[in-house]
Amino acid sequence: MNAEKRSKRPKKANLQPTWEGRGWFIPPFAENEWWTAPLAIVPALLACILIFMDQQITTVIVNRKENKLKKGCGYHLDLFVLSFSILLVGFLGLPIYVAATVLSINHINSLK
């Protein structure tokens, strides 16, 4: 193989924001009106209800007696990691988690 020479990006001496006119903290209401935050509560509550119901349906399917789950520790660890990731994702403002009911069937098979 021929080794290609690639140019390397110069390293900066310190860590700083890319735009010098802005600091590390970006004000959340810089260009938004004040009423946008209370208005966002309505769809946020609907999304929370949807996720809660989807999670409950998935839990009912997973906890059926016919599945005969033997690895209880793995199930509880999964719930712990899931709750931590939901809190982290919500805090960072990333897309929300949705319980994948269909994919949970494969997860049940791994816990048998």
Automatic annotation (TrEMBL):
GO terms for molecular function: sodium:bicarbonate symporter activity; solute:inorganic anion antiporter activity. The chain crosses the membrane at residues 34-53, 74-100. Residues 13-112 form the Bicarbonate transporter-like transmembrane domain. It comes from Caenorhabditis japonica. Keywords: Membrane, Transmembrane, Transmembrane helix. This is HCO3_cotransp domain-containing protein. It is found in: Membrane. InterPro entries: HCO3_transpt-like_TM_dom, HCO3_transpt_euk. GO terms for biological process: monoatomic anion transport; regulation of intracellular pH. It is a multi-pass membrane protein. It comes from the Eukaryota. The keyword Transmembrane helix applies. Its main location: membrane. One of its GO terms (cellular component) is plasma membrane.
